[in-house]
């Protein structure tokens, strides 16, 4: 059915993907990792924006949300939730916050160390190349790795601060840690006695204002977009890939290919997505690899292997270093 609709639109509106012409300046010599490396080394690349997801944290031992038998949702089966997403629903949270705080205890900052992927992000900043890091993760490992607060946009919120759900009184990470690992488990506001929630974005809640304030300006300035460890399925985060300039190269480091839009979606103006396979591709590069190994490969090619090794040293030598 989708193929039929696509053909109808292509015929009636004279859209034909194979006949599209690229009329923008090509920045990369070749759409390969080597092409990206040459571009970075040329000195023309000065404002790298990075988008990251859960894939950069799996190497830290943080269980993902959906893997059968090991996902965080599976571990909470004892609560017999109507659906796994309930624990991130603010209405459900008000009635029964226990499942969320059980999860929070498993994920709480300080229980895990940054991965080589996180260290690579710090290295990009140390090299003066990181304009901004946009993360979907709530584990704060980017902060722990040393990415400065001003360079970080935590799109889906963070454990770093918390607020009372009624009076909005703010609490620190240390305060929250003491409560959920102490006798309280479900922390209560010292002012009004309502539940205090970490500043994680729940379903139906708006993303942090910082996300919207910075995204437009950052993606206009971006001269290289690096996407690591995200499936690019959650909006509005995923849509950011379509907001960079048409000439801006985009590198995806991930175990699976993602972020590609269907021809029909493109015809309907729903975003062009990443384009790895067409003959018209002039800027999108795919590195199908584990996030940590992919970042290591990029660091090696850039001549930064020793720098990354030193940043990883406090957490112990990794087998691929």
Automatic annotation (TrEMBL):
Its cofactor is Zn(2+). GO terms for molecular function: histone deacetylase activity, NAD-dependent; NAD+ binding; zinc ion binding. Residues 26-305 form the Deacetylase sirtuin-type domain. Its EC number is 2.3.1.286. It catalyses: N(6)-tetradecanoyl-L-lysyl-[protein] + NAD(+) + H2O = 2''-O-tetradecanoyl-ADP-D-ribose + nicotinamide + L-lysyl-[protein]; N(6)-acetyl-L-lysyl-[protein] + NAD(+) + H2O = 2''-O-acetyl-ADP-D-ribose + nicotinamide + L-lysyl-[protein]; N(6)-hexadecanoyl-L-lysyl-[protein] + NAD(+) + H2O = 2''-O-hexadecanoyl-ADP-D-ribose + nicotinamide + L-lysyl-[protein]. It is an enzyme of class 2 (transferase). It holds the Pfam family SIR2. NAD(+) binds at residues 54-58, 64-66, 136-139, 230-231, 291. This is NAD-dependent protein deacetylase. Binds 1 zinc ion per subunit. The active site is at residue 156. GO terms for cellular component: nucleus. Gene3D superfamilies: SIR2/SIRT2 'Small Domain, TPP-binding domain. It comes from the Eukaryota. Zn(2+) binds at residues 164, 167, 189, 192. SUPFAM superfamilies: DHS-like NAD/FAD-binding domain (SSF52467).
């Amino acid at each position: 059915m989708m193929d039929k609709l696509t053909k109808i639109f292509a015929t009636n509106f004279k859209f034909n993907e194979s006949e599209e012409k690229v009329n923008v300046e090509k920045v990369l010599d070749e759409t390969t990792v080597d092409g990206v490396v040459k571009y970075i080394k040329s000195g023309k690349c000065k404002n790298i924006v990075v988008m990251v997801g859960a894939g950069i944290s799996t190497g830290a031992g943080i269980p993902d949300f959906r893997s059968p038998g090991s996902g965080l949702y599976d571990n909470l089966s004892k609560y017999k939730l109507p659906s796994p997403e309930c624990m991130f629903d603010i209405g459900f949270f008000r009635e029964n916050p226990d499942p969320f705080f059980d999860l929070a205890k498993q994920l709480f900052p300080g229980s895990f160390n940054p991965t080589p992927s996180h260290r690579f992000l710090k290295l990009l900043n140390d090299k003066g190349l990181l304009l901004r890091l946009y993360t979907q993760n709530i584990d704060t490992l980017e902060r722990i790795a040393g990415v400065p607060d001003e360079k970080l946009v935590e799109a889906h919120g963070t454990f770093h601060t918390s607020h009372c759900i009624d009076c909005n009184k703010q609490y620190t990470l240390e305060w929250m840690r003491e409560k959920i690992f102490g006798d309280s488990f479900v922390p209560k506001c010292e002012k009004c006695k309502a539940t205090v929630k970490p500043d994680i974005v729940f379903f139906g809640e708006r993303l942090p204002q910082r996300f919207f304030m910075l995204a437009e300006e950052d993606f206009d300035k971006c001269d290289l977009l690096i996407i690591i460890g995200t499936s690019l399925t959650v909006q509005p985060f995923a849509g950011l890939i379509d907001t960079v300039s048409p000439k801006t190269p985009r590198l995806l480091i991930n175990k699976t290919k993602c972020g590609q839009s269907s021809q029909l979606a493109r015809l309907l103006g729903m975003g062009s997505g990443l384009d790895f396979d067409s003959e018209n591709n002039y800027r999108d590069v795919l590195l199908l690899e584990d996030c940590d190994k992919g970042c290591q490969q990029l660091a090696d090619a850039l001549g930064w292997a020793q720098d990354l090794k030193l940043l990883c040293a406090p957490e112990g030598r990794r087998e691929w270093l």
